[in-house]
Task: structure prediction
Amino acid sequence: MRSRERRRSILRATTVLMVVAALIWLGGFMWFATGLPHDVEDPTSVTDGVVVLTGGSDRLASGLDILAAGKAKKLFVSGVHQLTSVTQLQRLLKREPEMFECCVVLGKAAENTAGNASETSRWATEEGYRSLRVVTAAYHMPRSLLEFRRVMPGVLLIEHPVFPAHVKLSQWWRWPGTTSLIATEYSKYLLSLAWMTFLGSSRDRSSTDA
Result:
């Protein structure tokens, strides 16, 4: 009887902990989802450089527009496939070749967001840059800034979100695909935060979760 009661007590305690954890996760998820950017708050400030995290042609197009407008000296594209060249990107996007020749740099070492931050930090250090405009999807921006600030605490980072057509941030709860995407991104954000908090920000995470 004592053994049975003990098992029941453990089961009840486990159930309560799971419910509490789920409620905490849900509350954090609502905070995360409602806090995602819906526009570019600072489209005019000039920075030393602009970095684009690969993941969609709209991101690169936005980065090139920033460069063309004279808002940055150079554009760094982080996470590019090993076989991709500057010439291929220029032809794909149909932009002036002179812009690519002088001012577009490809980073091919990153395999995930932590890797994006690491290779961008190395590039910014080499260039002597102290300010960067960060271009990525709006849903990806919180985790990107978390990782970038981890490795570049002294660099001014200006967020420049883009808004893919298939991601419905307005009334996201009505769109299962968008809800799932944001939930996944929130979970990755928590993992990044936990890693930084409990394992230390100095560790290399460039080969972990994408």
About this structure: The longest helix spans residues 2-34. The radius of gyration is 21 Å.
